[in-house]
């Protein structure tokens, strides 16, 4: 795809004077200013200028009061129904729920059997418990090592059974 060539009199955005760029940036939202600040260092410097944000706050103070009293603005009960605003009772209820859950988990943790008991019941391998074995190994690695050992044992038994089968065949041929 061919690029359209710019006329020689075309000016790049960053070549404009800072005053004009500053005015243009004043019309952008915060998210747009963030995107602009990621273009290059010059625009980052202008986008992060405290004077620009002070100017934006002043203009928002003038625009905001009519928007807050607008008839199209939803009521508090509408915002609560849409779960945008949470009433105080809901916040207290969720805090209480978290506390009760923490208490329940603490009790279950205290009632859980110790690692040594799990080793005695053969639920957990010795290698997985620090202090019971010389080297502490993750349970996943122990399971993988045991699977490899089982495969080696199966291969050895297959070879042994194969040798027995060959010996019987030789005996049958010899008779």
TrEMBL record:
Classification via InterPro entries: F-box-like_dom_sf, F-box_dom
Domain spans labelled F-box: 10-57
Superkingdom per UniProt: Eukaryota
This protein's name: F-box domain-containing protein
Biological source species: Cephalotrichum gorgonifer
């Amino acid at each position: 795809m061919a690029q359209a060539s710019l006329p020689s009199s075309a000016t790049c955005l960053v070549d404009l004077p800072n005053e004009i760029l500053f005015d243009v940036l004043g019309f952008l939202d915060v998210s747009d200013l963030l995107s602009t600040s990621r273009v290059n260092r010059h625009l980052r410097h202008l986008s992060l200028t405290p004077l620009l944000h002070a100017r934006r706050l002043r203009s928002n103070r003038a625009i905001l009061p009519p928007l807050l009293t607008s008839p199209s603005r939803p009521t508090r009960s509408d915002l609560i129904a849409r779960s945008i605003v949470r009433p105080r009772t809901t916040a207290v209820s969720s805090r209480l729920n978290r506390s009760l859950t923490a208490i329940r988990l603490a009790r279950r943790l205290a009632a859980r059997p110790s690692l040594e008991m799990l080793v005695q019941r053969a639920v957990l391998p010795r290698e997985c418990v620090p202090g019971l074995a010389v080297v502490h190994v993750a349970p996943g690695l122990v399971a993988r090592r045991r699977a490899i050992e089982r495969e080696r044992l199966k291969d050895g038994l297959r070879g042994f059974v194969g040798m027995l089968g060959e010996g019987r065949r030789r005996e049958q041929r010899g008779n």
